[in-house]
Write a structure and sequence with these properties.
Elements lengths: L3 H21 L8 H8 L2 H29 L1 H21 L3 H18 L2 H12 L6 H26 L5 H19 L14 H11 L3 H35 L5 H21 L1 H8 L1 H21 L3 H6 L5 H14 L8 H26 L6 H25 L7
């Protein structure tokens, strides 16, 4: 990779990667998806529909990560954008449960294709330029682009959804098309040895990585934080709608959710700007635990005090993600062998999504009322227990072990 054209291609890829994330992650539907589904289905069916997405990821997450390691991540990233386009087309084409479930599966495909593959590609490009030491800061900038994307798309999506909730999905189709064009012009990074390992041996090798004490703790943390990060995300839309109704406000629910989500992502983007400095000051472990404490506290506030004041607290719901993304990736990725990174990151993501999918199924079958207070209270207890267990297990992660 020393020839000048290749170097130029790598340089362009590093510059365009934040833009790719911006357009791929521009989820205009995010502030209204629960409202849209709930306008067509019961609360129980909406939770079941969401669980279909997470169960779909279970079937797709690891195979797509393995695919990226075998054929190279660029083609997989293109496929992610296309799958997301088709998924949103399914959402706007019909209100029937089966069609919406198909859209959830396609959305799971799009998400799983980029999950792990994008991070692995970014690290491979930076390392190919002999700038691996710049990766944490570059990943931090990529995180800011992601949050800026989600902030602006939430504001626009909430506004256009006042006219028609389906317009939010139409805007996402356009943004996904732009992401597909950007990824098409990415430079190819050579894949690992295609004949080296079967998918099962690859998975076995990744599980061997997870036996490393530090990686084991980080994996447990990732699974926990995936679940608790998604609890406020799933319930904030009906939570805000209830507050608007109780307060007799004239603000329409889609716009209110869009404004709230935009402000949430702006706050998270600000947090991401300081994440590496916070890690350097507190240390990686305590910085990650701080993110977990913040999210657990937000769930508790939503469960115990459903008042307009808590709407401001919920603005912090993406701060934990902003604080943890770059430090977590910067610590995990260098510990994983070349040719296994996308598979490992996909396996990690799969376990997190599988855990949350199981939580959603449990909640959808446990509570029969339309009130959201009960599932939030249950989630609060689970989150507190998980946080205590992670803290108790922290000393184990400091044990010496050879880098896998």
């Amino acid at each position: 990779m020393t020839d000048e054209p290749k170097i130029d291609g790598l340089e362009r890829a590093t510059r365009r990667y934040p833009a790719y994330l911006f357009f791929l992650k521009a989820s205009y539907w995010a502030p209204v998806f629960f409202l849209y589904f709930n306008s067509l289905l019961s609360l129980s069916d909406v939770l079941l529909l969401e669980s279909i997405y997470y169960i779909g990821v279970v079937c797709l997450e690891v195979p797509t990560g393995y695919l990226a390691d075998r054929i190279g991540p660029r083609r997989v990233l293109i496929g992610s954008s296309v799958a997301q386009m088709v998924a949103c087309t399914a959402f706007v084409s019909s209100g029937h449960f089966v069609t919406l479930a198909l859209g959830q599966i396609l959305l799971a495909l799009g998400m799983s294709l980029s999950s792990g593959s994008d991070t692995a590609y970014h690290y491979s490009v930076v390392r190919a330029l002999d700038r691996a030491d710049e990766y944490p800061a570059r990943e931090g900038r990529a995180s800011r682009a992601l949050f800026l994307s989600q902030a602006s798309s939430a504001l626009v999506g909430g506004a256009v959804a006042i006219v028609d909730l389906r317009l939010a999905y139409a805007f996402t189709i356009l943004s996904s098309a732009i992401a597909a064009v950007i990824s098409f012009h990415f430079v190819d990074i050579p894949a690992g040895d295609k004949s080296a390992e079967s998918v099962w041996r690859q998975l076995s090798s990744c599980l061997q990585h997870a036996r490393h004490p530090r990686l084991a703790w980080l994996l447990a943390f990732y699974i926990f934080i995936t679940v608790v990060n998604h609890i406020p995300h799933e319930f904030y839309q009906p939570f805000l709608a209830d507050l608007v109704t109780a307060s007799h406000m004239s603000l329409q629910a889609p716009l209110g959710a869009g404004i709230h989500t935009a402000l949430t992502m702006v706050v998270a983007g600000i947090a991401a700007n300081y994440t590496i400095r916070l890690r350097d000051r507190l240390g990686s472990s305590f910085g990650l635990l701080l993110a977990a404490v913040i999210q657990t506290s937000i769930i508790a506030a939503m469960a115990l005090n459903p008042s307009p004041v808590i709407a401001f607290v919920v603005l912090l719901r993406s701060v934990p993600r902003g604080l943890m993304m770059a430090p977590l990736n910067a610590e995990i990725v260098p510990l994983i062998a070349e040719g296994r990174r996308a598979t490992y990151l996909s396996l990690q993501s799969l376990l997190g999504r599988l855990a949350f999918g199981a939580v959603l199924v449990a909640l959808s079958r446990t509570f029969v009322s339309e009130a959201i207070a009960e599932p939030l209270e249950t989630a609060m207890v689970w989150a507190a227990v998980g946080l205590i267990l992670l803290t108790v297990a922290l000393p184990i992660s400091a044990r010496k072990a050879d880098t896998p």
